[in-house]
């Protein structure tokens, strides 16, 4: 969370056209305190508390982008963003195409995502597929503090709209050194979180730590690939890793059917079929609404489930 706040601060200082807007982002500093201190530093014209109207937030951002601003919209929770899908699908993702490339739409949409924090219903979904499926939208999900800062900064500078999904389970848990000042992580570049030779574990967001834990528990040598940017997808890194190991397990927190892991599996089936030594396996959330907190640990993919899939694949 400190890295997200720092990214916003640095980019607002660097460019006077960058502004943040959303429910409680100003006086309260955001429900997770991502925007703490920005109102005092930049004033109410660049740190704007909005009504509880997500479609209005994003619709206003379209007009602001047309007028030369670079709005950063906060959707307070991922499930609260569903009312703004109309604006996103019908307008935000289409305007560059609609204007034949004459207009840029540098809109960044931040939202917490995923479970693991014992929140109520409609506070722990993983809806990344909705946004990845929308043409004209880029989508990134960080798994480390440094990437949270670098991907957000890259999104703010992008000429196209970008959805940044921040796993809320990571907001206060991992700590690492983060570069001071300007720090960019290019959109469209995956990260090898851990090198290995026997099996590739592919994950993003909060599931990267789960994949790394599984790699620790496996007797085999597991390579962990952090997708980082779901769209545009870094196919080269994924294919190179699977070519080396010959095996792939994909881990996603979202429900299984039509999840983003299926897109990665299709990519590997189309372009890595001659490198594979077994089927591409997926470890996912279940095709059910995210449960209440008492059983959410049974819903979220665990390291044990990833280990089980990897061992099955290694013995294929």
By DSSP (H or I, 4+ residues per run), the number of helices equals: 12
What is the CA-CA span between the terminal residues? 42 Å
Largest sheet: 7 strands, mixed
CATH class of the largest domain: Alpha Beta
The helix/strand class is: alpha/beta
Q: What is the CATH architecture descriptor of the largest domain?
A: 3-Layer(aba) Sandwich
CATH fold node name of the largest domain = Rossmann fold
**Fraction in beta strands:** 15-25%
Average predicted confidence as pLDDT: 96
Order of helices and strands: HEHEHEHHEHEHEEEHEEHEHEHH
How much helicity do the residues have?
25-40%
Low-confidence stretches: none
Any idea what the radius of gyration is?
A: 19 Å
Lateral strand order in the biggest sheet? 2-1-3-4-6-5-10
Summed up, the domain count is 2
Number of strands: 12
CATH homologous group name of the largest domain: Thiamin diphosphate (ThDP)-binding fold, Pyr/PP domains
How does the overall form come out from the CA principal axes?
A: globular
